[in-house]
């Protein structure tokens, strides 16, 4: 298959699409990684007793490759994803993947599937590194051996017709994570637990769920698949990393740009519900949504409009700076871009 002739790049959505190859690396039963390699993209076989299937011992990452304005393929901060994978692996008692190995795996898959990277401004190649406990185990304990896979899929823009301010539903019926739990790890179980609250929210006409801190329900935590920020009087605030919030790569990027380029006061701190509903602007950050404004939040059945339901100027600037660096339309003062030969 020649992707350039077979894929309608203008119609790409944010959906799974099979590609040519993936990277695979396995441990032996002493938990030592063996040599990884590119293999044809396809199904893998697992024992019904695999640790990931029975006890959820698995973690994943998400990043993107872009065809840039410089007519080359680039990665955005894969080192940060490698660091977070190490954090997740430690929390879930899985063997660490060295940063250099992680980045080599990502680069190898992107290069081998380079013709699946959408044209400039037509989307990106979504990269999914995933680590599983694949060895069979009976009883709640770590699996005897593990598998690391990196696969890729071309995706279009998250919002096809331009940026769409999000409509959120705050919930007290569900918590995303608990203090001292796995909220700061990108554990697969965190996302399974979010599916039912998200289903209810979408059935009621909302885009996503806004979760509160499990121990202090007056405080914001994050959206189901993204970090949250507010802006008041040109002060940018986001919930502090207290152990139950995912340390997002885009979150970190937004903080750095707000401080170092926009010269704004940025505070990682507690944010109350009242702070949110009275904010001048609010937005979410994540690999998929990048920087997306929050236009409305419903709290206890009362809808609160933020930034007149649209996008505030600081939110717009942050998104343009991040996407501009990702696509090499702007200078990269932070050294975030990894160019592939």
What does this structure look like?
It is built from nine helices and 17 strands. By secondary structure, the chain is α+β, with helices and mostly antiparallel strands. The chain folds into two domains: 153 residues, D-amino Acid Aminotransferase, Chain A, domain 1 (2-Layer Sandwich), CATH 3.30.470.10; 161 residues, D-amino Acid Aminotransferase, Chain A, domain 2 (Alpha-Beta Barrel). Strands 8, 9, 10, 11, 12, 13, 14, 15 and 16 form a nine-stranded mixed sheet that branches. Strands 1, 2, 3, 4, 5, 6, 7 and 17 form an eight-stranded antiparallel sheet that branches. The mean pLDDT is 95.
CATH topology of the largest domain: D-amino Acid Aminotransferase, Chain A, domain 2
Largest sheet: 9 strands, mixed
Mean pLDDT: 95
Q: Report strand %.
A: 25-35%
Give helix and strand order, one letter per element, not per position.
Answer: HEEHEEEHHEEEHHEEEEHEHEEEHE
Low-confidence stretches: none
With helices defined by DSSP (H or I, 4 residues minimum), what is the helix count? 9
Number of DSSP-assigned strands: 17
- Distance between the terminal alpha carbons, to the nearest Å? 23 Å
CATH top-level class of the largest domain: Alpha Beta
Tally of distinct domains: 2
CATH superfamily of the largest domain: D-amino Acid Aminotransferase, subunit A, domain 2
Shape descriptor reads globular
In quaternary terms, these chains amount to single chain
User: What would you say the CATH architecture of the largest domain is?
Assistant: Alpha-Beta Barrel
Helical coverage, percent range: 10-25%
Rounded to an integer in angstroms, the radius of gyration calculated over CA atoms is 20 Å
Query: Pairing-aware structural class of the strands and helices?
Result: alpha+beta
């Amino acid at each position: 298959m020649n992707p350039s002739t077979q894929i309608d790049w203008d119609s790409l959505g944010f959906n799974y699409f099979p590609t040519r190859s993936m990277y695979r690396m396995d441990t032996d039963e002493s938990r030592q990684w063996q040599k990884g390699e590119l293999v044809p993209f396809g199904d893998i076989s697992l024992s019904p007793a695999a640790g990931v299937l029975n006890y959820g011992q698995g973690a994943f990452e998400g990043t993107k490759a872009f065809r840039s304005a410089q007519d080359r393929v680039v990665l955005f901060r894969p080192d940060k994803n490698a660091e977070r994978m190490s954090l997740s692996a430690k929390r879930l008692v899985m063997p660490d993947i060295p940063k250099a190995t992680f980045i080599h795996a990502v680069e190898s898959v992107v290069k081998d599937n380079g013709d699946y990277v959408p044209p400039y401004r037509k989307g990106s190649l979504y990269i999914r590194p995933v680590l599983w406990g694949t060895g069979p185990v009976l009883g709640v304990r770590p699996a005897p051996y593990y598998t690391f896979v990196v696969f890729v899929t071309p995706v279009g823009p998250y919002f096809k017709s331009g940026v769409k301010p999000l409509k959120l539903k705050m919930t007290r019926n569900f918590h995303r994570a608990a203090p001292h739990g796995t909220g700061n790890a990108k554990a697969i179980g965190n996302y399974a637990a979010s599916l039912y609250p998200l289903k209810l929210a979408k059935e009621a006409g909302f885009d996503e769920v806004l979760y509160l801190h499990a121990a202090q329900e007056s405080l914001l935590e994050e959206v189901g698949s993204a970090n949250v920020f507010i802006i008041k009087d040109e002060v940018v605030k986001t919930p502090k990393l207290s152990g139950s919030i995912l340390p997002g790569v885009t979150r970190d990027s937004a903080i750095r740009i707000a401080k170092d380029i926009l010269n704004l006061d940025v505070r990682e701190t507690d944010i109350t519900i009242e702070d949110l509903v009275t904010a001048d602007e609010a937005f979410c950050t994540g690999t998929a949504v990048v920087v997306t404004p929050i236009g409305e939040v419903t709290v206890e059945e009362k809808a609160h409009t933020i930034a007149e339901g649209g996008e505030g100027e600081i939110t717009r600037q942050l998104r343009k700076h991040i996407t501009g660096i990702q696509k090499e339309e702007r200078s990269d003062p932070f050294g975030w871009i990894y160019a592939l030969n």
